[in-house]
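This part of the workshop introduces the protein records we will be handling. A record pairs a protein's sequence with a compact description of its fold. Backbone structure tokens are a discrete shorthand for how the chain folds in space. The question running through the whole workshop is how a given chain folds. The record below serves as our worked example for the rest of this section.
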Amino acid sequence: MPHRRIIILGLALSSLGGCVGTVDEPPWRPGGNVEPPVTCEEGREDPVTAPLTRLSRDEYEASLRALVGDATVDAIAPALAGLPGDEPEGEVAFGRTDQRISPQHISGYYAAADAVASRVSGDRALREQVAGACAADAVDETCLRSFAERFLRLALRRAPEGGEVDRAVSVAMELDGFERLHAVLFTTLMSPDFIYRFENRGDLRDNDTVIELTPFELATRLSYHFWGEPPDEALLLAAEDGSLGSDDGYAAQVDRLIDDPRADATLIAFFEEWLHLDRGPFSSSPRLDVLRDGIATDGLAAEMREEIRDLIRYELDQGGSWGDVLTSPRSFARTDRLASIYGVEVWDGAGAPPLLPEGERSGLLTRAGMLYTSDGSTNPFRRGAFLRRSLLCDHVDPPPGDLPADALTPPPVVAGQSTRDAFAAKVVDEPCRSCHAQFSPLGYALEPYDGLGRYRTEEWLVTTMGEDRGYATLDLLTVPRVEITDETPTMGAVELSQRIADSPKANLCLSAQYFRFTFRREEQGYDRCVVEGLARRIDEGMSLRDALRAIAFEPGFRRRRLEN
């Protein structure tokens, strides 16, 4: 690599290393006992300091595809493989909240940028696609400047400014031939302005700490939020001509974005991450070999997950609510084996979805994709903790560090003893008893479904070694305490699903999770008012799609508080 490119790379890397942001205030959690330090008032707005936003791993790849095409990005897969994935921290489900930068990120960006630049500059057909006139045998300054202006506008998601084009061209012109194209491509893709979403160019409001996003910054925030990719030409033009700055123009663009199939894909991705749908396939194990009872499990987990996606898509399209997702009586099984697990006809994807057997299933929580485990076993502790933490947004303390060595080991399978009874026996004494009372009953309510998602009225007991221990009676009566102080019992998961759907916690938790997905951080301070306001509108009858659209009209979506 020429020496000049190394110098430019060093400048880019030093900029990347400084792109960090911190948040000091602990998050507010819906359903928690800690009172937030704010009072929600009508018309009040108080955006908190938000960290600088790095493109997520998926957004980075989508941005490359928008710039140089699918074929080029597919061809550089080995280089992209070195870029770390995004890992959520704490109880937040969303990888996009991971804003860390590491040496592995920097080397990954370097490898991907160099691979893209080398492939495009070295292939005439790709040069014609990406660089137009600069695909010829000579790359003169005129064509290079024209290319740089176009490419920087798309890559930086704004009009180039401050001599950016001049600098890119002047450095590239000291090289020869198509190395000039390589230089512009490489340095642009290594620019912090490509890898990060800077939101610091807007006008200050009267308090000198909150800025209005510029039209280009707003276009970028909208496109990555709804589509997971950079603004298209229509959105960039709306930023350029000022129409995005008007209320009508803004609403028109939001509607255009959310009506696009790419928005559906992003909304489904939100639910997939929140609900932890991608838990992997069924594995090969002695227990599963017996429990599956002749059902072929290759690819079955993927079919189960797709059925949940179809449920959510259906309610989005039908104007349904989050409560409808939680209580839907319809099956979306598209394959014979999943339909046979539910005891329904196969859905063709077009007509009215068939009804699930009455009394056996209802809503999201009773879907096989939410219930299956890799080896076909069930674990009511895990199921209950997931519902308490992720669906109700209540805090669940982690196990203490001084537990006995076998405390987290599932109990052995004993003839005549149900999984519920075996697990309950592990936590009969304090301090386990009080802690597990918060979430284990939620898991017990799901015991009518085995680890393949099949409904059952008695439990087939099979050990980890595949030994048949007969059957055990199921106890369906639980006190789930959806509201912690509520001692009302339920009989199984159908009643539990309705109880959750009827609870204010359901919509409040949806709002909180979507806030975290949107703003890439947990709630702080006045964020509580945004979350509660959105939940209140859902309580009043707003559809699921309109609720997810509404976040773009929160004042904080178009503003940002400057970091100190």
Summary: Residues 3-30+53-197 form one domain. The radius of gyration is 27 Å. The chain has three domains: 3-30+53-197, 213-259, 273-501.
